[in-house]
Amino acid sequence: MLLSGFNWLLSLFFLALLVMNIFAFVHAALQREDAFRAVDKQTKPFWLIILGISIAVQLFAPMLLLILIGVIASIVYIVDVRPAVAGVSRGGRGGRGGPGGWSSSDGPYGPYNGGR
């Protein structure tokens, strides 16, 4: 009984990793090609190939080392590339200072609050 519970938990964990990989792939597919170049990251086809291979390996050749490599690639995309690309797509400056880039009240040493 304990082993079946562990197998269920492990299956749920691998399903969560698959969902994360699919999320990263779909996000990369929906972004503009020039946004990747604007933030000086790898190209859109590069990320689509890496994330697509990661999904295919997890679905069709579930070898733990290859799954781990794919998950690391997805985490790098989600943590590093996604915020930068999304910042460019929204018109920001690559994620500086918040979702829209720098605030209009930011000075050279931080936000200006009007002497308050």
The level of helicity is 55-70%
Strand order of the largest sheet: 1-2
Number of domains as seen in the coordinates: 1
**Percentage of β-strand residues:** under 5%
Structural class: mainly alpha
Cα-based radius of gyration, to the nearest Å? 19 Å
Q: Return the average pLDDT rounded to an integer.
A: 83
Give the ordered list of helices and strands.
Answer: HHHHEE
**Number of contiguous helices:** 4
Number of strands: 2
Low-pLDDT runs of 5+ residues are: 94-100
Shape: elongated
* Main sheet attributes: strand count, strand direction, barrel closure: 2 strands, antiparallel
The separation of the N and C termini measures 64 Å
Multimerization state? single chain
Task: Explain what the structure shows.
It holds the Pfam family DUF2516. Residues 89-101 have a biased composition (Gly residues). Residues 102-116 have a biased composition (Low complexity). With 116 residues, this protein is mainly α. Helices cover 67% and strands 3% of the residues. It has one domain (12-94). It is built from 4 helices and 2 strands. It has a two-stranded antiparallel sheet with strand order 1-2. The termini are far apart.
